[in-house]
Amino acid sequence: MIPIHVSVMSDEVMEYLVPSRPDSLIGDGTLGEGGHSLRFLESYPECRVIGIDVDITMGQRAAERLSPWVNRFELITGWTDEVLAEWDKAPPDLVLMDLGVSTFHYDGSGRGFSFKSVEPLDMRLERDGDGDASELVNTLREEDLADLIFTYGEERFSRRIARRIVEERKQSPINDSSRLAEIVAKAIPAQSRHGRIHAATRTFQALRIAVNGELDRLSRLLDTAPGLLAPGGRLGIISFHSLEDRLVKRAFRGLDVRFGGTYNVLTRKPLVPTEKECRSNPPSRSAKFRVIENMSSEAIL
Ligand SMILES: C[S@@+](CC[C@H](N)C(=O)[O-])C[C@H]1O[C@@H](n2cnc3c(N)ncnc32)[C@H](O)[C@@H]1O
After folding, report:
1. Which band of pLDDT confidence, cut at 50, 70 and 90, is reported for residue 237?
2. How many CA atoms lie less than 13 Å away from 138 in the CB half-sphere?
3. Mean pLDDT across the chain, nearest whole number?
């Protein structure tokens, strides 16, 4: 059985994302298996939750888990930045984004997110989306592949990795995750191969970000979501690497400037998981949680 995703920084989310009214509307923009939504629904018996996830399988898993609250829970399948750009529902009081992918993606999706298993190199969250990871790995020019791995993976051996990938794909296309992991590991100098994280972690992260356009989507979401918040509403974002956190930090600061203090950043420094959480749920280690509040008496944009 595939283990259920353990929600990250769930206590901090509950502490900072407190509805201002009993019948609040809460947007869970990265529903996953619905762990955070479940806590909202349990804690606030009159709130309504709209959960958005682009992965149809995740939506199904969450809908099943949240079936006891079917009257107060609505599922939307789609990219959250696109859904929010066309939002025609009431302004949400709370919006949560818990970025990245779920335990299911690594352990049960069969889509090559993990370098630990032999799976087709796909990595698409949107099941019928364009361009999967094998397409990038097998068609990009060496230079572009190196840039992608450097930019999205912050991988200092990006050029060596790209060179090796291009050599290997001449023998035969690279279509599975374990072969890619081996190629990457071999490209990295032996003395740097045995760090805290697996040698292929950064390359896999880079490909996943590129395949799903994650940073562009986050930027678009940061442009839209704050303006949708109800008066007194809050937007909380949990990010998992510095590229994401930088975008969130800058956008939140920028709101202060653009809207003359209408938005209050509630987390001058990002909140991070407790040591206890890091020990009990290691994937939480890199999490950073930032929150802003709409201080105005009406929606802004
Ligand atoms: C880290 S998981 C969320 C886990 C969830 N908060 C919980 O506690 O169970 C992130 C989920 O968001 C989805 N996702 C990531 N980026 C997305 C985006 N831009 N639009 C829609 N869904 C997205 C992924 O498919 C994944 O299921």
Report:
1. very high
2. 15
3. 94
Q: Which domain holds residue 208?
A: 111-212
CATH number at residue 95: 3.40.50.150
pLDDT tens by residue, 220-236: 999 999 999 999 999 99
Task: State in Å: Cα 142 to ligand 1 middle.
Answer: 31
Name residues contacting ligand 1 (CB within 6 A): 5, 7, 30, 32-36, 52-55, 58, 79-81, 98, 100-102, 125, 217
Instruction: Measure the CA–CA gap between 159 and 259, rounded to whole angstroms.
Output: 42
**Whats the size of the chain, residue-wise?**
301
Closest Cα partner for 98 from 25, 168, 23, 9? 9
- Tell whether 36 and 153 lie within a shared domain: no
Indicate the residue among 212, 244, 268 that finishes a domain.
212
Q: How far apart are the first and last CA of the chain?
A: 45
